[in-house]
Amino acid sequence: MIARLWHGRTQAARADEYFEYLRRTGLEEYSKTEGNRGVYVLRRIEGDRADFILVSLWDSLDAIRRFSGPDIEKAVYYPEDRDFLEELEPNVRHYDVLSAP
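User: That's the sequence. What structure does it adopt?
Assistant: Structure tokens below.
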């Protein structure tokens, strides 16, 4: 299994709104992609900023490609992300999952 980590930062005042947007876009698309095993959504609010980390779990690199396209290191964004996020980080990170619950 492979974990794909993505990070984004938005205003704390819009954190709940952004989470709902994530549910309608990336999280929904993850769930519809063959080979996706789920996703953890982590959020940390500190001051006036909210950081999100998505840890999506995948059967294989081919499964990730079905979601991301051929360049699996490139982050996937949706149209309104520009309205929410302070920056569009260009890349994600992948890790082999050695232990899981």
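The helical segments are 15-24, 26-32, 61-68, 81-84.
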